[in-house]
Amino acid sequence: MTFWQLYRRNRSAVLGLFILFAVFAMAAFASVLFPEDPFRLAGKPMSPPGENGFFLGSDTLGRDVASGIAHGARTSLMIAGLATAVAVFIGAVLGGLAGYYGGWTDDILMRVTEMFQTIPSFVFAILIVAIMKPSIQSIVIAIAVVSWPAVARLVRGEFISLRNREFIQACHSVGMGDLRIMLAEILPNCLSPIIVAGSLMVATAILIESGLSFLGLGDPNIISWGFQIGAGRTVLRSAWWVCTFPGIAILLTVLAINLVGEGLNDALNPRLRERT
Amino acid sequence: MNHSAKRIRYVLKRLLQAIPVILAILVVNFFLLHLAEGDAADVLAGEAGSATPEYMAQLRQKFGLDKPLPVQLAIYLKNVLSFDLGFSFRHNMPVSQLVLDRFVPTLLLMVSTILLAVGFGIVLGLFAASGLNTWRDNVISFFALITYATPLFWVGLMMIVVFSLKLHWFPTSGMENVAMFYEGWDRVKDIAHHLVMPTITLSLFYLALYTRLMRASMLEQAGMDYVVTARAKGLTERRIVFVHILRNALLPVVTMAGVQVGALIGGSVIVESVFAWPGLGMLAYEALFSRDLNLLLGIFLLSALLVVAINLIVDVIYSFLDPRIEVT
Q1: What are phi and psi of B121, to 5 degrees?
Q2: Which of 160-189 (B) contact A at CB < 8 A?
Q3: Residue of A nearest to B281 (CA)
Q4: Which of B157, B289, B299 faces A236 most closely, judged by CB atoms?
Q5: B81 inside domain
């Protein structure tokens, strides 16, 4: 069966893919749909949804909530994507080295990984962003720093199970170098669990990013969903829509990514699914 | 060697293993402090409004900030071990004092959250597993899926909109109604009333987690040989599920409760700042606003130590619950 046929069997994963496409489209066409700066004061403050030309209402300063959501989609996807890429890279390198070489390399790297897993991750992320001053870079670094240990453990496990297989022994016997074995022989064989873990990690990254910007640790120059909710919470009593709609955007996006992740898991590891 | 001696040795071994982790956390903490722009002398000078370079140098000497890095690290370790976490200039109090004062409300919130999440998680997981692939199972799985995707702070705000602002069932924020000067049982009732919404908000995510875990664990145990034996003995299905499977299925849930404590602390920062619950999380939120890094690092340190301690306790409990993980 082709990949798509396998993926399609999971109905909710297809739904997730649709929602995710919609979010991507919203992010891509944000400047077309809402050409103005989302921070611009667009009209009467605190307009309820549907009034004064605001589809989803306006906030305390008269900023368009819908425009903020569209532009915020960019921020969320970009930060989550970048952070996941960095985390997967660090995790794959450290996990790969630990799993391939074993021995004291493994011991040291796994101690470090365990320590990072012990540290309460969200508090750690807050601390990193607060110390480095809020910006896209510091948020990406903070999310990557708290996310890589999971990848490292996964990759290590895969490397350990593969390093003694016959085809790897064959590689050793024809004199292939360690680096080439790791990158060209072992890594391609453990890509599917990494892809699945990475896709689920994007969802977590979006949640962490929104939490940070809700606490006022977002990049001050870029609109984001968490920032919108944080800015709207003071007027919760009189303008519920400012907080509600960006939250729904986060919920739908994260849900879609989780569904896609599960679908990828089913499609890439078909044996796993049949077993359960 | 007899059993209890082995157990004591195991506990001691786990205690020893925790020491390098704690040291590493302290070192990370120290370097984070150094990564931050400006040192204690800058902060003091800033508070004073102005300072001459000579005065700054004098201050640095006083705090040992002119010493080489390893010496500073040693001083820092010594200070922490004597529970001196520095001074918060915003609150005009030692950090250790501040952190301890706010520790109890956080502990209250966390304990009630864990009880609610683990308790309901076990019940819901049991329900889902016993009605596999029925509407019951599907509803519970759907609930878990949605909960996983919802940001905590948003749930909190929406609960405030519905249950506080519209229905007036629960107060929007705080831990107690200070203006009423409640005493005794009235005060307990008042605090419990304030505790309801933060606890529900914080526990939702973990509830979903424990539900899924309990469901998977029940299903795994149901396929074991001892279940077949029990059935062959002619035990009722009810007895098999509640006496035989349930007990064994609980083990992974206990372990998970320990592993998730770190995440719970992160969640409490968000929930406390939404509901203005006067605990460590709220303190961290205030520290963020006033750029009080010393205080933030103190909170971070305490929460990391808390995670280490709770993991240790869970491991020990686990070794009592499941004598198979020996302790070798």
Answers
A1: -60, -45
A2: 160-161, 165
A3: A123
A4: B157
A5: no
Look up residue B54 and give its two tokens: 């000579």
Identify the domain containing residue B149 by its residue range: 101-286
Per DSSP, the three-state class of A107 is helix
Q: Do the Cβ atoms of A228 and A193 come closer than 8 Å? A: no
Residue A174: exposure state from Cβ atoms within 10 A (0-12, 13-18, ≥19): exposed
The sign of the dihedral angle between the CA atoms of B253, B256, B258, B260 is negative
pLDDT, tens digit, for every residue of A171-195?
A: 889 988 888 888 888 888 888 889 8
- Joined together, the tokens standing for residue A195 give 């892809």
pLDDT digit string (tens) for A31-54?
Answer: 887 777 777 777 777 777 777 667
Q: Which residues from B are below 8 Å from A261, CB to CB?
A: none
Count of structural domains within chain B: 1
The CATH code of domain A72-275 reads 1.10.3720.10
CB contact under 8 A, A214 and B146: no
Q: A99 vs A57, A102, A194, B293, CA distance in Å?
A: 53, 5, 15, 38
Given a contact cutoff of 8 angstroms between Cβ atoms, the answer to whether A97 and A179 are in contact is no
Q: What is the mean pLDDT of residues A250-275?
A: 80
For chain A, give every domain's residue range. 72-275
The answer to whether the CB atoms of B300 and A124 lie below 8 A apart is yes
Q: Are B169 and A245 in contact (CB under 8 A)?
A: no
CB contacts under 8 A, B 2-21 vs A, are 20-21
Distance CA A37, CA B165 (A): 33
